[in-house]
Amino acid sequence: MDTIKDVGEVLLELDDVIIRRWMAGDEPSLAANANNIKIWRNIRDRFPHPYTRKDAALWVRIANSDKTMLNLAIVYEGTAIGAVGMLFKNDVYRYTAEVGYWLGEDYWGRGIATRAVKTLTDFVFANFDTIRIYAGIFEYNEASARVLEKAGYHLEARLKQNVTKEGTTYDELIYAIYRPS
User: Fold this and answer.
1) What is the pLDDT of residue 2?
2) Can you tell me the distance from the alpha carbon of 102 to that of 113, in angstroms, rounded to the nearest whole number?
3) Which of the 8 DSSP states describes residue 101?
4) Residues 6+ apart with CB under 8 A from 138
5) For 121, phi and psi rounded to 5 degrees?
6) Per-residue model confidence as pLDDT tens for the chain (181 residues)
7) N or C terminus: fewer CB in 10 A for the chain?
8) Which residues lie below 8 Å from residue 69, measured CB to CB, with a gap of 6+?
9) By C-alpha distance, which of 107, 129, 126 is closest to 118?
């Protein structure tokens, strides 16, 4: 399993978006964008709702401390508007990583999430000993499925009755992409 190297503050620059480490000062925009039930309904329960400034302060403080993952801010016009990350697996899964992401609702439909996922995916394949990257999404999250498909991921599996959100159990869709040969 790779450990994250110190790559500095800015990891990736797109035309109008920067993907970088979380920094002090991101807390207000993080809390404002993350405090949205529509976002929470599509991600794991450990992501708090409501999402407070206290939650944002804790996240900014700890986001860069886990050396088995990249936790990155998606920054647009100087403001943190969402997150994209990569969790590097271990043991028999040591060549596998899991991608995750969310974006503030005001920025949906602009292709920002797709570009962030695609760019981070390419970065990981170029800089880490990773063969496979996957994402698990709730069956009803059509927008996330489109993000992954546009970023080059393919539907690999449907895990029946695998995730429970708000008291209802759903299928989980697994999208994956492999290191280019």
Assistant:
1) 40
2) 7
3) E
4) 42, 163, 165, 170, 172, 173
5) -60, -50
6) 344 444 455 567 777 899 999 999 999 999 999 999 999 999 999 999 999 999 999 999 999 888 889 999 999 989 999 999 999 999 999 999 999 999 999 999 999 999 999 999 999 999 999 999 999 999 999 999 999 999 999 999 999 999 999 999 999 999 999 998 8
7) C
8) 4, 85, 86, 87, 88
9) 126
The answer to whether the CB of 121 falls within 8 A of the CB of 147 is no
Distances in whole angstroms, Cα of residue 122 to Cα of each of 6, 98, 128: 18, 13, 10
All domains of the chain in start order, with CATH: 10-134 (3.40.630.30)
The CA-to-CA distance between both ends of the chain, in Å, stands at 20
Q: How many residues does the chain have?
A: 181
| Chain center to CA of 107 | 15
pTM over 0.90: yes
